[in-house]
């Protein structure tokens, strides 16, 4: 019997630069320009992972602003991959009165609650040598 332990792949944001984040109150369009630097850690000791599809998404007030597709790549065992992504554009956001007040408060202090999520389809390449546990 072959067993593979489920060590999670870890994603960590190391840097972010928000150069534009403006809400047009007349038409509810939010213009944004956000660059993110993050890393993905494969902590498995003997298994590499091929990311067939990797997508990063950003949200403000539970509304998706944008998404970026990263080209497929292979990550070896005990390896960290650093990625840089850029999210930019404009989206219609429906904030309501409370959400608009929250946006104005965020704007005044210069700190916005932007959430980052990822989604990936992965595969583990087959190998000719199999170890038994």
Condensed summary:
Residues 38-87 form the Late embryogenesis abundant protein LEA-2 subgroup domain. With 133 residues, this protein is mainly beta.
Low-confidence spans? 1-5, 128-132
CATH class: Mainly Beta
CATH topology: Immunoglobulin-like
Structural class: mainly beta
Q: If helices are DSSP runs of H or I spanning 4 or more residues, what is the number of helices?
A: 1
Give a quick account of the main beta sheet: strands, pairing sense, barrel closure.
4 strands, antiparallel
Order of helices and strands: EEEEEEHE
> Mean pLDDT, rounded to whole units?
85
Instruction: Supply the CATH architecture.
Output: Sandwich
Tell me the count of domains. 1
Q: Which overall shape is indicated by the principal axes computed on the Cα atoms?
A: elongated
Report the helical percentage: 10-25%
Strand content: over 45%
Distance between the termini: 7 Å
Question: Number of DSSP strands?
Answer: 7
Radius of gyration: 19 Å
């Amino acid at each position: 019997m072959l067993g593979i332990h489920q060590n999670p792949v870890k994603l960590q944001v190391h840097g972010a630069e928000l150069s534009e984040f403006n809400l047009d109150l007349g038409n509810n369009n939010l213009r944004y320009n956000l660059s993110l630097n993050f890393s993905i850690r494969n902590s498995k000791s003997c298994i590499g992972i091929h990311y067939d599809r990797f997508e990063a998404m950003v949200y403000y007030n539970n509304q998706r602003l944008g998404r970026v597709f990263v080209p497929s790549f292979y990550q070896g065992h005990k390896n960290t991959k650093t990625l840089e992504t850029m999210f930019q554009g404009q989206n219609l956001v429906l904030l309501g009165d409370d959400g608009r007040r929250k946006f104005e408060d965020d704007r005044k202090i210069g700190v916005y609650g932007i959430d980052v999520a990822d989604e990936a389809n992965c595969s583990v390449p087959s190998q000719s040598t199999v170890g038994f546990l």
